[in-house]
Amino acid sequence: MPFKPADNPKCPKCGKSVYAAEERVAGGLKWHKMCFKCGLCQKLLDSTNCSEHEGELYCKVCHARKFGPKGYGFGGGAGCLSMDTGDHLKGENAN
């Protein structure tokens, strides 16, 4: 009977095998320690500051910035509340 190595789970970031000594678990998936970082700011994560969204890892700050509430009072400022479509900036058609 030939030797058959144990099947190890694959890291979603790099696709390589993840061994027990180097695994980090988030979102039901196992990650390498160096692949376990924020998808936006590349900050290394731990179990207290990671959020998973559709298979991608984010730190709490970036997750709130990308998927959290928008508008005045949520870091967007009054500029994002404008309903102006920019019609006054379009030139008149010369006939």
TrEMBL record:
<protein>
    <submittedName>
        <fullName>Muscle LIM protein 1-like isoform X2</fullName>
    </submittedName>
</protein>
<dbReference type="InterPro" id="IPR001781">
    <property type="entry name" value="Znf_LIM"/>
</dbReference>
<dbReference type="GO" id="GO:0007517">
    <property type="term" value="P:muscle organ development"/>
</dbReference>
<dbReference type="GO" id="GO:0008307">
    <property type="term" value="F:structural constituent of muscle"/>
</dbReference>
<keyword id="KW-0539">Nucleus</keyword>
<dbReference type="GO" id="GO:0030018">
    <property type="term" value="C:Z disc"/>
</dbReference>
<keyword id="KW-0479">Metal-binding</keyword>
<dbReference type="GO" id="GO:0045214">
    <property type="term" value="P:sarcomere organization"/>
</dbReference>
<dbReference type="GO" id="GO:0046872">
    <property type="term" value="F:metal ion binding"/>
</dbReference>
<keyword id="KW-0677">Repeat</keyword>
<keyword id="KW-0440">LIM domain</keyword>
<feature type="domain" description="LIM zinc-binding">
    <location>
        <begin position="9"/>
        <end position="69"/>
    </location>
</feature>
<dbReference type="GO" id="GO:0060537">
    <property type="term" value="P:muscle tissue development"/>
</dbReference>
<dbReference type="Pfam" id="PF00412">
    <property type="entry name" value="LIM"/>
</dbReference>
<dbReference type="GO" id="GO:0042805">
    <property type="term" value="F:actinin binding"/>
</dbReference>
<keyword id="KW-0517">Myogenesis</keyword>
<dbReference type="GO" id="GO:0005634">
    <property type="term" value="C:nucleus"/>
</dbReference>
<keyword id="KW-0862">Zinc</keyword>
